[in-house]
Amino acid sequence: MTAAPSASEEPLLRVRGLKVHFPIKRGVLFDRTVGHVQAVDGVDLSIARGSTYGLVGESGCGKSTLGRAILRLEEPTAGEVIFDGTDVASLKGEPLRSMRRRMQMVFQDPLGSLDPRQNVESLLSEPLRAHGLGGGTKGIAEKIRGLLDAVGLPSAALRRYPHEFSGGQRQRIGIARAIALEPDLLIADEPVSALDVSVQAQVLNLLEELQERLGLTYLVIAHDLAVVRHISDVVGVMYLGSLVEQAPADDLYEQPLHPYTRALMSAVPVPDPVVEESRERILLAGDLPSPANPPSGCRFHTRCPWRQETRCDDEVPVLRELAPGRLVSCHWAEEIRDGVLQPKSAEEVAALMGVSVRATGAGPIETDALVQGVDEPVERR
Amino acid sequence: MTSVLGAPVLEVDDLSVTFQRKGEKPTRAVDGVSFSVAPGETVGLVGESGCGKSVTSLAIMGLLPSRGVKVGGSVRLEGQELIGAGSRKLRSLRGAHMAMVFQDPLSSLNPTVQIGTQVTEVLLEHRDMSKAEAAAEAVALLDRVGIPDPRRRLKEYPHQLSGGMRQRALIAMALACSPRLLIADEPTTALDVTIQAQILELLKELVVDTGTALVMITHDLGVVAGLCDRVHVMYSGKIIETADRHELFAQPRQPYTGGLLASVPRLDAGRGTPITPIRGSARDAIPWAEGCAFAPRCDNAQDDCLTEVSGSVVPLEPDGPGRELRCRHPLQYPTAPSGATALGAAR
Ligand SMILES: Nc1ncnc2c1ncn2[C@@H]1O[C@H](COP(=O)(O)OP(=O)(O)OP(=O)(O)O)[C@@H](O)[C@H]1O
Ligand SMILES: Nc1ncnc2c1ncn2[C@@H]1O[C@H](COP(=O)(O)OP(=O)(O)OP(=O)(O)O)[C@@H](O)[C@H]1O
Ligand code: SF4
Ligand code: SF4
Ligand SMILES: [Mg+2]
Ligand SMILES: [Mg+2]
Questions:
Q1: Which residues of A touch B282 (CB under 8 A)?
Q2: Cα gap B286→B226, rounded to integer Å
Q3: What is the residue with the minimal CA distance to atom 8 of ligand 1?
Q4: Where is the signal peptide (chain A) (predicted)?
Q5: Distances (CA, A) of B302 to A138, A145, B283, B332
């Protein structure tokens, strides 16, 4: 689909050592910071021009926060975001505004992100006017018609309001609005997860078609691994604020290297009974630990079926290149890949970690409550 | 239907549910739905948002509001008619003989009552037990569904449990009285995939161990493929296709089923493998009385799909052994099962 850009070319987006920590406040009279939610904790990634980077991981692992920090909708605690060669943090005023125009966002819930009192015409013309684009009333009208056409909506849609459309149509409006300013980068946060499957396919195809026509670069955030595989050139897997693996999409799915990626992949149901019957599922012990109090060493060690006596509990693994384009942060990646190390069952892991069989234990209750004080652990619907 | 597995636990016959609000025109959410479930069998109800899955399950459980709703047809649980049964009778059947697990465990648990109290309440109401016995049984139930350290968890409140654990707690409550029928309405939709895998595994085990009849409601075709013996596909309030899961996925006959299968990206399909959406959305459905509700979106549609032309509403008819189909121009396959994939054949 998308031509793989040559490696020598400067990537459109480069993120280095990005951290976003949210303070956990407590206290009746004085806000006292009692800890931090390490939502994003040192992420490096780069996205080649014209390509799609897919970001996956379980609820609360920091995907949306990472996306928001790239757009500076969230102030990073540390690290840098370099867009088209410029450090975004160094920008102020007009240059920041124009940079923002070049990066747009598509949200999960199209209804929540569109002003219900504005009709489609005004929703689409507003960003154009705000940035002084489109060239006058006549130019704007023409431009809007082009946008509607591009996302497959009839021009009769102009006079209608968001609630008059189906979910899929609303997402088309959201996409039209995002591409109105001719951005280079589109960050789509769960763009299809609120849609019925038949409609989801329409929107995925539309995103691909627009990418080809307009040369867009995408960062697609989604919890659905099949969707991400379908649309991405490169996939990054996040766990508790960090990237644990990154690889070209097909490689990642054919041979996942990180134990978490393996478990995640094996858990996704495939709509084919024959495949389902023959698949081996790696069941994980327990739930995601609290990002306010992540495990020491490898953050995955409390659930990892391959965890070893040495290194895993006390040494943080770095993201390293195992093969060209294949990054993984696991001390034992080679041994696991070559079958030298064998996984333990979920029961064995649970027993080792001192919880009872088939555990689903979240972290200790105190930290759980801490996080809840700030933000209910987000559940997917 | 499937007499091989013994007399059905649940028989739903021509079930209809119509919502009628003052000053609004009535909406028929469920329209002549019939199916049955045998002991130890898992039956799937699938379809897109708004097709009537949840309303069907609420009608079976007798949980629809009593005002502004008209329920017709018959629902028999182990031979006993539930439609029109008194609320006291339904209450005693719920919990003891049939139970339901919902998508959102938090809203089905009382936030101000300890988990332990909520579980023992079910036991005390439906089973002849002393308080001490109920407390011991509650520990056993939580342990059974894989909740670690059950004694501690019983003292906690719902918000102190993770989403996966709350769903387990609800399943534990549903199992408290070894119900013959369990209805699970999108039980894993709110959960992460690794937790979903744990819960699905648990449900599978339970069906095998207890012989409970399970009705699994989901929009996820992957979940259906891994869990259900038989599948009913719904569209706009009606069942449009019924088949054994292997046949359904290998050779869907209804264009809507075929369209659904062609729309989902598969984890095991390479980058760039095309997906083929169904055009339009469920909002385009026409009333069944006027013709096939799927006609406005269907590539196979012809004039006789409209009632005006054919003179009758498209019926659900037998379509080979164990299959039923509501369609005038179904998808065709070369001959007998040929290994043709659903994706290829649906084009
Ligand atoms: N404004 C905030 N203040 C405090 N904590 C926050 C804030 N926003 C997010 N968090 C926390 O940061 C962590 C990461 O959240 P984020 O929304 O980025 O996760 P996600 O991967 O997008 O999850 P989901 O798949 O559920 O959308 C979570 O623990 C969340 O509770
Ligand atoms: N209390 C109600 N009053 C009026 N209409 C209702 C009511 N409950 C449901 N409906 C309508 O009945 C139809 C079927 O709804 P139902 O909840 O069964 O869908 P569903 O298949 O479970 O969808 P989803 O996948 O979104 O859960 C919908 O059109 C819905 O709007
Ligand atoms: S470093 Fe150890 S605990 Fe972490 S993923 Fe690798 S084997 Fe598992
Ligand atoms: S009855 Fe007609 S419109 Fe309906 S699914 Fe079959 S071919 Fe399509
Ligand atoms: Mg998110
Ligand atoms: Mg429902």
A1: 166, 196
A2: 32
A3: A65
A4: none
A5: 43, 33, 20, 16
Under 8 Å between Cβ of B231 and B46: yes
Q: What is the pTM of this model?
A: 0.89
pLDDT band at A364 (very low <50, low <70, confident <90, very high): very low
| Gap between the Cα atoms of A321 and A308, Å rounded | 21
The sheet carrying A78-83 orders its strands as A32-47, A13-26, A78-83, A86-87
- Which residue in chain B has the smallest CA separation from A235? B271
Q: State yes or no: pLDDT of B335 exceeds 50.
A: yes
**A291-335 pLDDT, tens per residue?**
888 999 999 999 999 999 999 999 999 999 999 999 999 999 999
CB within 8 Å of chain A, chain B residues 175-214 = 189-198, 200-201
B165–A167: do the CB atoms touch at under 8 Å? no
Rounded Cα distance, A284 and A363, in Å: 15
Mean pLDDT within B198-222: 92
Per-domain residue ranges of chain B: 238-346
Distance between CA atoms of residues B185 and B206, nearest Å:
16
Sequence-distant (≥ 6) Cβ neighbours of residue A107 within 8 angstroms = A113, A174, A189, A190, A191
Segment holding A118, helix H or strand E: none
pLDDT digits (tens, 9 = 90+) for A38-80: 999 999 999 999 999 999 998 889 999 999 999 988 999 999 9
Is residue A366 over pLDDT 80?
no
**What per-residue confidence (pLDDT) applies to A163?**
87
pLDDT tens digit sequence for B238-265: 999 999 999 999 999 999 999 999 999 9
Residue B15 one-letter amino acid: L
Q: Are A217 and A47 in contact (CB under 8 A)?
A: yes
Statement: residue B122 has pLDDT above 70: yes
Q: How far, in Å, are A148, A185, A196, B266 from residue B277 at the CA level? A: 19, 25, 10, 14
Tokens read off for B212:
């409970």
User: What are the Cα distances from residue B134, in Å, to B110, B116, B158?
Assistant: 19, 10, 19
Q: Is the pLDDT of residue B111 over 60?
A: yes
Contacts of B202 (CB under 8 A, 6+ apart): B145, B146, B168, B171
Of A228, A211, A220, A216, residue with least CA distance to A185 = A216
Distance CA B144, CA A65 (A): 37
Is a pLDDT exceeding 90 seen at residue A246?
yes
Nearest Cα to A261, choosing from A289, A278, A242? A242
User: Given B156, B165, B249, which is nearest A360 (Cβ)?
Assistant: B165
**Can you tell me which residue has the tokens 């384009």?**
A325
Candidate from B104, B220, B275 with C-beta closest to A230: B275
